[in-house]
Design a protein that fits this description.
single chain; alpha/beta; Rossmann fold; binds zinc ion
């Protein structure tokens, strides 16, 4: 059953979210080689997008598993774009979670929530000298349109009330807590600087308070 939210947003009741399928998918983790994983789909996520959870063995060894909430970045995750640090961050999370067990919540909110084509438009503006936040403002987007409520819904469906969060982004932890996720610890991620993403990472640190040493 679906209900109408306060701002006209369709929201699903919390208990409507449940696991749809758990699929065994061996993956290739850069630097570690072939590792087992379980990929999970869901019923009833409030935005109806196809977000997935990737469970790395040992994730359920503790009551507060290590969790990386990763927003999709097609250019970085798949093609190794040097304009951001998403690819190395995902690979690092896969390596850490493969090593000690953990969960990667892979959220389909490309370009900090503005979408792939809009991200390209923002890149063109950045090429004219704007930083990532100014470019989003010109395109009439907020500096970060990501919504972590689905992450909370997925954790609830997985029966994980408390996590150790793998992140440098203070907003992520704050949003997850606001959506009812307990966070027992925040584990910092590495910083992956190159000549092409230096300005982007500096903007993330200075304008959004990311804990980065650039
Ligand atoms: Zn990226």
């Amino acid at each position: 059953m679906r209900t109408e939210g306060n701002e006209g947003v369709i929201v699903a009741p919390a208990d409507a979210v449940r696991v749809r399928a758990r699929v065994e998918v061996p993956i290739n983790v850069p630097g570690l080689g072939r590792r087992p994983s379980t990929m999970v789909s869901f019923h009833g996520l409030h935005d109806n997008r196809e977000h997935i959870a990737v469970l790395l063995p040992g994730w359920d060894r503790r009551s507060d598993p290590l969790v990386r909430v990763h927003s999709e970045c097609l250019t970085g995750d798949v093609f190794g774009s040097q304009r951001c640090d998403c690819g190395p961050q995902l690979h690092e999370a896969l390596a850490i979670c493969s090593h000690e067990g953990g969960i990667i919540l892979y959220l389909r909110q490309e370009g900090r929530g503005i979408g792939l084509y809009n991200k390209f438009d923002a890149y063109l503006l950045q090429d004219q000298g704007l930083d990532t936040f100014e470019a989003n403002a010109v395109l009439n987007f907020g500096h970060d349109m990501r919504d972590y409520r689905v992450a909370a819904e997925m954790l609830r469906a997985l029966d994980v009330p408390e996590i150790r969060l793998l992140s440098n982004n203070p907003e992520k932890g704050a949003q997850l807590r606001a959506h009812g996720v307990g966070i027992s610890d925040i584990v910092p991620t590495g910083t992956f600087v190159n000549e092409n993403n230096h300005a982007y990472l500096t903007a993330k640190r200075e304008r959004a308070g990311h804990a980065l040493e650039v």
